[in-house]
Amino acid sequence: MSGDLRQHLLPSAASSPPVLNGRLVLDAEAVPLLQDGALPPTLPRLSHLWDADSLKYIYMGAWSGLLVLQFALTRVLAETLSMPSDADTFDRHLMYETLSHFLLFGFLLGWFINITDHDRFIWLFSWRRWYFFVVYFGTSPVYSYVSDYGCMEHSMEDIANWGPGMWAAVGSLGGVAVIFLLVHFYLAMRRQTTAGALVYLIARLFVFGFYVVAAVYLGHSHYCNVHIHHYFTAWCVALFAEFNHPISALMLAISASIFVQGSAAYSCAPLFNNGGCMTTVRPTTEATCLFRGSQNFTLMICPLDGSPPFEEANCYVGDALQPDANLF
C-alpha cells in the first residue's frame, strides 16, 4: 500500500523530466530554440501533481488536523459533561490565545517526530497503526475522568498535600515515561549512526535545557512564579517519539493526547508568570493602594478570566470619587 501510494504521489526516475546538459528541460533556458529563435509551442509538464516539497505541507496539515480534532472533542466534554470538573471557561480571547500557542507547540512537535517525511507519515497514518488512533483518542477523556477523583485533584504547586493516591499515580506515569524514553534511547542507538543518535538526543535536551535555565533564572525572582503544567511535560516526552516502531507510536499517542487534554481543558497557560500581582478572593474587598510611576499610566482592575463581573465598584482618585469608573 505504501509503495503504491508513493508511486502515484512522487515522480519516479522513469517519469522524471529529461535533463539536457545537466539542466531540467522544464527550465525555459535549457530548451533548445527553434530555427527562428522561438521556443517550442508547449513545454514539458510534470507527470505528477505533487512532489516531495508539496506533500510535506499536506502531511503537517494532517497532523495539525489530528491535534485540533482531539482539542475540539476535549472542549466538548469539558463544556457538556464537565470533564474535567475544574476545566477553565474559555472566552473568545482565551480561545484564540490558547489555539495560537497550541498550534505552535503542535507544529514544533510535528517537526521533531519527522511527520513531514513521506515514509514516516505513511507508516503512522496507516490502518495498520489502528492502535495509535485508539490510544490517542482514548487517553484524553480517560485522563479527564481520572483527574476528577479526590486523590488526584492536586498540582505541582501543592505537592506537600499529595496523598498516597496522587503519589501512586504520578509514580506510575513517571515510571512508564522513563521506560518509554529508555526504549527510545535504545532505538536511537540501533537505528541511527553514532552521530545521528547524538544529534537526536542533543536536539531534545537543548529544548529541556532552555526551560530549565529559564526556570532556575526566573525562579530566583520574587516577582516570577514557575509552574510546570502537565500539557508541557507531556509535550516534552512526545518530542522523542519519532521512530517507526509500535512502542514509539504508543508513546506518541499517550503523550500527545495528554498534551492536547491539558491545552484544551486548562489552556496553554504560561510556565512563567508575574508573581507580583495582588490577588484576593472575597465577595467584597476594600483596599487602599498607592501606585506610582515615572510617567502617566493606565490602571485596570478587573475580575480573573472566567469570574463574574463586578456588581458594584466605587473608586477614588485622590479624595475624589470617580463615578464613571468602568466595570469590567
From TrEMBL:
Keywords carried by this UniProt record: Membrane, Transmembrane, Transmembrane helix
Domain of life of the source: Eukaryota
Keyword Transmembrane helix: yes
Spans traversing the lipid bilayer: 57-78, 98-115, 127-146, 166-187, 199-220
Protein name: Uncharacterized protein
Upper taxonomic lineage: Eukaryota, Viridiplantae, Chlorophyta, core chlorophytes, Ulvophyceae
